[in-house]
Amino acid sequence: MLDSTRKITDRLAGVSSSLPRNTQEVFDVLDEISRLSDPSAVVGVLPLIWSAYKDDRSSVDMTMESYKREGNLTIAERYPIPELVRSRAIGIAADLVAAGQLHEYPELDRELRCCGYGSFGGSRRWQRWIEYAPPDLSDMPEVPERVWLLGIMACNNNGYRREAPLRQLSHYFDGNELRFLLWRTADSVVEVRTIAREAVLKRVTMDDYVPYFEKMLPLLVRMDRAGRVDLTDLTFLIRQTVQREL
Question: What does the alpha-carbon distance between residue 44 and residue 126 come to, in Å, rounded to a whole number?
Answer without folding.
Answer: 8
